[in-house]
Amino acid sequence: MAYIPAAPFLSPGDNSWQLTAATFVGLQSIPGLAILYGGLVKRKWAVSSALMAVYAFAAVMVVWVLAGFNMGFGHPLLGSLVGIPQPVLNALSEQGQASIPLLRGLMPHLAIPQSSLIYFQFVFAAIAPIILAGAVFGRMNLRAWMIFVPAWSLLVYSVNAFMIWGGGWLSQLGVVDYSGGYVIHVAAGISGFVAALAVGPRILKDQRDFKPNNMLLAVAGAGILWLGWNGFNGGDPYFANADAAAAVLNTNLATAVALLSWFLLDMFVNRKLSMVGAINGMICGLVAITPAAGYVDGTGAILVGLLGAAVPWFTMNRLGQRWPFRKADDTLGVVHTHFVAGAVGGVMVGLIATPTMVVYLGTHGAAGVGVAGLLAGNGHQLLVQMLGLVVVTAYSGAMTFGILKAISLFVPLRMADRELEVGDRLIFNEEVFELHHPIPVPEPIDGASEVGGHAAPALS
């Protein structure tokens, strides 16, 4: 076989890491969140919760290459609000050199092909609606979900991505989001809260008793989520450089601190240990460090982990039954673990970001960009971070409400009453594990069908 050299611009190490990091992020969705959700919900909803995740991953892939990527990272359509919605199918075969508008002033092109960038950004786009799904388990009509996911991905996710990452007006003001604290978690958290309001609450029986059906399965999914996050934050410098390594270390440090913080708060304040609480703390740490991973040092990562867990713990355990949180039946507390944690991390960038952290330092000697927060003498960064939080929250919440109202004109947002009572077995004729044993049948008479020499079992 003839040796085909790499294109002159391409760094094999950077490209290998980018594809690996993207795969890690993809594993967070399937199987990570699908397994986590399947273990955390009641048994009768395990299949539908996993299916919502798998469907969203596939649906976003299609709309991403047809329009979403260029809406988030292409040439501007409406000033600095969104990119032109057009396909990127040619980029998948031409293997051109990747570039995104936000980085063009720093380095015109990256050391990876455009297809690597498209795939890396796809797995980010895919996980956002899967996170959102956690707020509406146990009652959202799956047909409505099938329409909602591609619409939300294009009209909410891609627009937020352009405003902050694609060279849009928020990025021009100086708002930064290292790996999706605002674009993914704040947007998904507030959208999930609004969706829970629009769809309505679970039936009373499910609200009163919604114990996890398989905690070990949930722990397995949570573990995939934690380790997959190394790709989430480690891939965002777009180079296999020192900042990628620092982001990975900060991610794990903040997550460990957050998990322990939630665990100890449960122990000493609630006087009750909980594996679900430990998972919530872990998720809050991962979410809170996401907007800050490459902008803070180790001390900053510890602070992000502490506050990233303590604040959501307080909102969930002390404010959960008060306005506005009690207005929505948020099944898995997405508004706390994603919206609140993402907001804490994003605002803390404006407080403790240190310019000694080098971001987007290329392999060819391109200059780095450091972000300084208030404690480093840059109060402006805190102001723009708070502005970015308000804009993403308001836009995502309002657009989500509009999308759901439009869908409700054609498809009910809620399942039928009988489906709400029975769950997966009625909807799919499938369950997470089979509890019903086949009814024994007599030995077959002459001419009856047999399987392996024995009577074929009756269908349950």
What this model shows, in words?
- The structure is a single chain.
- The protein is mainly α and 460 residues long.
- It has one domain (12-94, 110-416): Ammonium transporter AmtB like domains (Ammonium transporter fold, Orthogonal Bundle), CATH 1.10.3430.10.
- It is 61% helix and 1% strand.
- The chain has helices spanning 12-40, 46-73, 89-94, 114-133, 142-164, 169-173, 181-199, 204-208, 215-234, 242-270, 275-289, 298-317, 334-352, 379-408, 417-422, 424-428, and strands spanning 450-451, 454-455.
- It has a two-stranded antiparallel ribbon with strand order 1-2.
- Helix 1 (12-40) runs antiparallel to helix 9, helix 4 packs across helix 5 and helix 9 runs antiparallel to helix 10.
- The longest helix has 30 residues, at 379-408.
- The protein is globular and about 60 Å long.
- The model is unreliable at 361-368, 437-442 and 447-460 (pLDDT under 50).
Name some characteristics of this structure.
two-stranded antiparallel ribbon; Ammonium transporter fold; 2 strands; mainly alpha; 1% strand; 460 residues; 16 helices; globular
Structure at a glance:
61% of the residues lie in helices and 1% in strands.
Order of helices and strands: HHHHHHHHHHHHHHHHEE
Helix content: 55-70%
Write down the CATH class.
Mainly Alpha
Q: Find the count of extended strands (DSSP E, 2+ residues).
A: 2
Strand numbers in spatial order across the main sheet? 1-2
How much of the sequence is in beta strands? under 5%
Helix and strand content put the structural class at: mainly alpha
The CATH topology annotation reads as: Ammonium transporter fold
Give the low-pLDDT segments: 361-368, 437-442, 447-460
First-to-last CA distance: 55 Å
Number of helices: 16
Count of the domains:
1
CATH architecture: Orthogonal Bundle
CATH superfamily: Ammonium transporter AmtB like domains
Mean pLDDT reading: 89
Gyration radius over CA: 23 Å
Q: Give the CA-based shape.
A: globular
Profile the largest sheet: 2 strands, antiparallel
